[in-house]
Amino acid sequence: QAEVKGAWVCAHPLSLPQILVDLPADRKHQALQYENVVAHEGSSILRDLVLSPDRQHLYAMTEKQVTRVPVESCEQYESCELCLGSRDPHCGWCILHNVCSRKDRCERADEPQRFASELRQCVQLTVQPRNISVTMSEVPLVLQAWNVPDLSAGVNCSFEDFTESESRIEDGKIYCSSPSAKDVIPITRGRGDKRVVKLYLKSKETGKKFASVDFVFYNCSVHQSCLSCVNGSFPCHWCKYRHICTHNAADCSFLEGRVKLSEDCPQILPSTQIYIPVGVVKPITLTAKNLPQPQSGQRNYECIFHIPGSTTRVTALRFNSTSIQCQNTSYFYEGNDISDLPVNLSVVWNGNFVIDNPQNIQAHLYKCSALRESCGLCLKADPRFECGWCVSEKRCTLRQHCLAYESSWMHASSGNSRCTDPKITKLSPETGPRQGGTRLTITGENLGLKFEDVRWGVRVGKVVCIPIESEYISAEQIVCEIGDASPSKVHDARVEVCIRDCSPNYRATSPKSFTFVTPTFSRVTPARGPLSGGTWIAIEGSHLNAGSNVTVTIGGRPCAFSGRSAREIRCRTPPGHAPGGSPILININRAELSNPEVKYNYTEDPTIQKIDPEWSINSGGTLLTVTGTNLATIKEPKIRAKYCSSERENNCTVYNDTTMVCYAPSIDNPERSPPEVGDRPDEIGFIMDNVQALLIINTTNFVYYPDPVFEPLSPTGMLELKPSSPLILKGRNLLPPAAGNSRLNYTVLIGDTPCTLTVSETQLLCESPNLTGQHKVTIKAGGFEFSPGTLQIYSDSLLTLPAIIGIGGGGGLLLLIIIIVLIAYKRKSRDADRTLKRLQLQMDNLESRVALECKEAFAELQTDINELTNDLDGAGIPFLDYRTYAMRVLFPGIEDHPVLKEMEVWYRVSVSLCGVSCWGLTSGMERGVMWRCSSTSLQLLSCVWGVWGFQKRMP
User: Fold this and answer.
1) Are 391 and 374 spatial neighbours (Cβ–Cβ below 8 Å)?
2) Cα distances (angstroms) measured from residue 725 to each of 721, 793, 849
3) pTM for this entry
4) 370-417 in CATH: which number?
5) Contact, 316 vs 405, CB < 8 A?
6) Per-residue pLDDT tens for 719-736?
7) Helix-then-strand count for the chain, H and E
8) For domain 423-517, which CATH number applies: 2.60.40.10, 3.40.50.2000, 3.30.70.20, 3.20.20.80?
9) d(Cα 728, Cα 713) in Å, to the nearest integer?
């Protein structure tokens, strides 16, 4: 095998093609591009390419950036075929790892069949059987693999990500089993009659799936008809007595009920069309084959008619295996806007066992009267409908529904029928030249049943009109060609149609007259155009819409007809023979119109000399001034540009023969945009009528630059600003690096108001107008339009009138709230005072009652003491000494209180403390002092008596 090498070639300004070089001499090409790598989107690549020291990467440089590009990207290929089919000399297929990589990155790549470097070395895998029924489980499968390495470490069989099973390898073959019944269900659920899955071989050594083959699970049971069951791609059987499709023939109840071939399927055969008049009781006989005889317990046959809006079931009788009859019944459908309604027909037995109808045989329900309101329409109906015209009742009906039908019922089959009272409803056209040749279309009713009825019966006044058989529509339309009316001086004439003869009952006269006119023309606009033709012109005159056909020639060449009216004919000029005037000739049917005074002038084709400026931006829309010659001969010129298979156009305005102004077309394309240094379009030119030489202009160096890119005003898109402050819009590509003095013309709108601009390479300085409030900022340049956000402009005054009104209103509202709160507080305080007084009064009453009760209790006590004294026989009450009594009252239960101890300090201060009142007894010290003041003994006793609860604390 010859050695091949890869190389990088900087042949395109935006990408790096990789090619094969040093191919064998017998190869047809000495170099082959195998990959195209984009190093940096939108930037030109310099020719100085450098390999990294390890030769694994290439350094590609643009004017502003260095990009490290790997010399290979093997991992992008996901299969052996894609990997080796790419022809990348660095890549090969690491088989057991199932990955595209370099050879030095593939483990044990030097061992046989571990690493594939040619397509023929890719692993091939087959399996037998290739398909099984979904009802079969754990079926033994035999797999044969080629181009595989030693598999002694073992492999597993994997059905995608559903199941995985062990396998064994014997004699170079791999044996494994299909999934179990429970594992098959999720694989095939909802998948129709088959599910194709990948059967993988998974290496136990690497844990990777390295080979695959398609394996099919088929499901016979989804088929609901015999033909779909047996005509499928899988071995399915139809059980016609059970009406099921199965892969197992043993599932059928009877041997004679098994169907394997489509010829043995029960089915309806095509026969004569079935036509059923509405409301008529009629049996329907159908031809079939292999119709099964219902067994014991099974229901008989039925015919089902699927009429829109309803379904009709009719009992059917099976004569034999080849014939069945739907019994007598009548059928209906709603409405009279359909004369013939095809109805789907089904034959079933045992309730819902449907007999196949492969030809989709239908029954046709029809109404004779529907859409057949005239005799002619009735008699031209399909003879199989058996509809006829009931003369006495003037309606279309069946023979049996026409009273006294023998004398007044007409049918087309009689061969000699013709309808009375023909009528003309429309003429087209209504005018024509006297020279004749106009094809007149006559529309109406009862205009004969066959062409022979009208062959000699059409006249326009006294001028014969010859009917054209190919355009005749029975009973409805006659097209005839009017003869020469020049000898006649008649201006208007009625059209007359006779059906065989011109007796009154068979003659029709048009309600409007046909008018013979003399068309003329007097002017052509525009009067000149390029020699290459293609100019739309209007030829003005009178009666130019007469006749049925018109042709226009200029200088003997046809002018492409577009349309016409009574005063104008529009057409597109052909190429001229030479500059100068060319005669115009108009043919309207047999009339030839000419006017020596009216000529169309051909001029030399326009030329383009210069486009200024020779650049635009991606979005186009910039103003271009085009200079040339004969430009004014083109009324609607356009400029075109093609870039990366996308072609756009834009309009131009002609000022004079040498100058016109165009708006550059956009080249916006999602696949590619011009780089910062600019890029030439694939094509640029002008659409000027049919001037082909200007479609592509090779003499211009027109360049497209990328659109400007602006930063948003703020992360939120909202910027606050005062009116006196300038708005700075930052971005890049604001000034395309074009030669000359022309610059991109920017417009910045704040709301709808433009602002004064100063433009630099990286920013626009906008002197904001005297506005306040919130306004959207819009930047426009040619066809480019962008909004960087919204501007919130605040007023210079501290408070605006709305703010003052708001503050005043807010202050007034606050004052009102304070007044309301004070009033509420005052009312609450008044209520509290009243409540306090009421409680005070209740307390006074309570004290009075308590005092009264105390007096009564004391009186009772005195009485009890007197009684006790009397009982003691003069001994009296056993009073304690004053010291003991006072101690028990003041300190009950305490025998050794500190006040009982003698302290010298108290004698020094006793004189000054002896005047303490009883209400100052708040500490032990004061109690001790009082105790030692003989002058306060009586006060103490009186205090004790006044203490609340004293009586309860008496020992």
Assistant:
1) no
2) 7, 9, 87
3) 0.62
4) 3.30.1680
5) no
6) 888 877 888 999 988 988
7) 11, 67
8) 2.60.40.10
9) 9
